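Quick one:
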Amino acid sequence: MSQRPLDNFRSLLDGRAGSWIPFSLDVGAIPGFSPPIERTFRRITGAEDPAEYFDADVRRFSLSARFGGDDPAALHEAVEPGTTFDEWGIGHRAADVEGTVDKTFAPLARASSVEDVEALPSPVIETGVDTSPVEAYHAAGCVVFGYAGSIYEWSWWIRGMERFLVDLVSDPPMAEALVRKIEEHTTRLAIATARAGVDVLCVYDDAGMQHGMQISPSLWRQYVKPAWRRVIEAVRAEAPQVKFFLHSCGRIDPIVPDVVELGFDVLHPVQPECMSFEDVYRRYGDRILLAATISSQKVFPFGSAEDVRREVRRLAEIAASDCRCILMPSNVIQPETPWENVVAFAEEARALRNTR
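Output:
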């Protein structure tokens, strides 16, 4: 193999055919192994970094942010024991089953005015960090993904889903104020991450459920789409070389054309339970790099190793003419997933590169 993974990925991100289909074990810039899978990996392999051990095409480097006020607990009417707080003051309490979704508490659940929204402290991005890992990843020929925020998803985490969806139709100034506040931080975080040398900025904005959209396409286009347009334009004015990865779970068929129009470069996961990778690839694969994903809901945990290998080969065959996709898990690989299924995915995906 004479070409480096970084060069191959840049060809794909620039809209050209690739020399092979790249793969990642992660969910963009988020670790792809749930904690139990991570422990299994370390116990069996004795290694520290799954991407390095399995020779994946992608590495991760993200900046940290912290709560910008004094006491995030003061934003909440009551705080359950064991609750921790993130950069927005959102409360998180670990689920009873390790590796599953936290219970969350919205810091603006009691907000009643635009002034309440504006008073919420914006996160503080930790700057002055050591970016030498990015340089080392590039020297090794790997593309680097970094976390760069959210719009819709953070909006309802901060306000509470029901309240935010009601705001969209009954109190537009309230909804717009929250979206704008989040947009400003996402823009700052994305620019700072681009300045660190990261190649692909990964944003997370689940807009779908298994059977349709969480939010009507018209409301998404009214509030969320313009915010993403402003973020992308502002970041590219500062760092024109940077690319954008959008993670949006669920059945989001109605807004895929909008995602393409906005200029996102990668779309993940094209969720196998509710969307057809082949259909989306045939319609949009020449304009956006699509994630060809193995289901973390079905195939990874409940299929056999051969099922995983078969699915990798099926997805690769769809994009065989130009290699314009990236093989990935559809979401974090869950605790009940057999270790041999993880190995099967990595081996089969890596073989696609080594045989080109």
